[in-house]
Amino acid sequence: MAEIKQLEADYVIVGTGAVGMSFADTILHESDASVILIDRFAKPGGHWNDAYPFVQLHQPAAYYGVSSRKLETGWREKGGLNDGLHELSSGAALLAYYDDVMRQDFLPTGRVQYFPLSDFEGDRFTSKLTGETFQVEARKAMVDCTFLKTTVPKTHTPNFTMDDGIRFMPLNDLPTITDAPDGFVVIGGGKTGLDACLWLLLNGVSPDDIRWIVSRDAWWLDRENTQATVDFFDQTMGTQAAMMESVGAAESMEDMFDRLEACGYFLRLHEERPTMFHGATISRAERDEIRKIKGVIRKGHVTHIGHNEINLVEGNVPTTPNTVHVDCSASALRQLEDRLVFDGNVITPQMIRPYQPVFSAALTAHVELNFEDAAKKNMLCTPVALPDADSDFIRFTSTGFMNQYLWSQEPKVRDWMDDNRLAGPAAMMREVSPDDKEKMDVIKRMRRAGPAAIGKLNEFKERYGLS
Prior knowledge:
- The chain is an alpha/beta fold.
- The chain has helices spanning 18-30, 91-106, 191-202, 233-249, 253-262, 284-290, 357-370, 374-380, 392-408, 411-419, 425-430, 437-463, and strands spanning 5-14, 35-38, 112-115, 118-121, 124-127, 133-144, 161-162, 168-170, 183-187, 210-213, 218-222, 266-267, 276-282, 295-297, 302-305, 309-312, 315-318, 323-327, 342-343, 346-347.
- Helix 1 (18-30) runs parallel beside helix 2.
- It is globular and about 60 Å long.
- The model has no long low-confidence stretch (mean pLDDT 95).
């Protein structure tokens, strides 16, 4: 039996995706702790290694990456479907960025041991290249950054069957097509399905040659309201104030969503009332482009694809042997069991601010370094449950509001957020002059509307059994 080698460090971090890299970055820059990084991929970046070639962030680059190194360049896109808004980094740019962070920032500290292409289980990992097995000891904590594992089409197993010989592919393979098909059927109504449809349209495919299977319509966030610079203050903070006012004034959950749409917080793609909410963002130009596709199929989930017919839960639709069926049915973030972020000597980073997993990981690491009591740390890092149904917006937002309030009461957290590049609106607020009456009026609206919004969300949680 081969010898098992022993390794130890202050923190053993499993996973060098966006969450693991963000957590490690804070540990390395705010302490002198040593770190072991273990990952199954050959390069840092996690699921971006398997992402489709035309993938982009759906939020501005200013909200992504690690705290210590900018991802954004300040460039605003010109032309296209993100015209006038801040850049959306490509998957290739993200992989290059994380490789630079590892090679230029982490490894030169001398406090990082990095083991790519390794399978971790229990307290040991095995190199997929050499077969060597290492047992690891964490002097302070084991950090499981695989809990929020993202599912991508390339590695996803569809939950439906199909006949042999069907032209079927994940959207990763769309750029490899060499023979024009009869048409395209895109399966999946979420962000990847939207991306597949938009890529086809932008590459000259007629809208009439695209059918889109949407089992549930979604609420979408308007990307213009997520910009992180002060010149977008009215859109970003103004819409945030309007969101709080809309929630506080709502008489029912349905009324709340109507108000949130009316104030510009939510967008929908079609007339059908959405029942899904995953927190994805789109631009209004993307919405208008996608509406060119008239062949939207709403008959529930696919159960089987045959050569001449697609079976769905609520009916069948025709297809042909030469139609390309594009799998976009993977749910990026699956529903997870409840788990404490801090549990003994194990840390499980999770989303603690809505829509921002990397900020959440960085703040979790900061809390780990600055607070001793586990109960206090868990109070400051209450997980925001990942949303799926529209009603999940209530719990999702309520927890986010409460976390934000608790952070504001802790100087160590509040001051850290004021200087952190991933904190987004904090940097924008710093640039507001007290003499700028219009912007200060928006801030006052937020402060007035916040308590009523929190109260209404708590009321709805009880009324609709969402606690």
